Amino acid sequence: MLIKRRPHHTPMYWRDTIQGYLFISPVVLGLIIWTFGPMIASFYISLTEYSLLKPPQFIGLQNYVDLFTKPSLRVMDSLRVTLLYAVLALPLTMCAALGCAMLLNQRVRGIGVFRTIFYMPTMVPALAMVFVWGWMLHPDLGLANAALKGLGLPTSRWLSEPGSALPSLVLLSLWSIGPTMIVFLAGLQGVPESLYEAALIDGANPLQSFWHITLPMLSPTIFFNLIMALIATFQYFLPAFVLTQGGPLFATYFYNLNLYEKAFRWLQMGLASAMAWVMFAVILLITLVLFRAQRYVVYYEGNQ
Question: Which CATH class name applies to 71-296?
Answer without folding.
Answer: mainly alpha
